[in-house]
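Hey, I was hoping to borrow your eyes for a little while. I've dropped the whole record in just underneath, so have a look:

——
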Amino acid sequence: MLSADPNEYARMLYTAMHSMDKANVDRIVIELRPRESQWLAIMVLTRGDAQS
């Protein structure tokens, strides 16, 4: 479970995604965060990665 704090969540998410990338997983599923300004950077990060 990742943190409810946006800054800590972002750090943990990046670490988890990096680990999964190294493990060559086929798919990463991320639960959408609240549509609030403090979560904007995470929303942009996850949508960008989904398209690559």
Observations:
- The chain has a mean pLDDT of 81.
- Residues 6-51 form one domain.
- The helical segments are 6-22, 40-51.
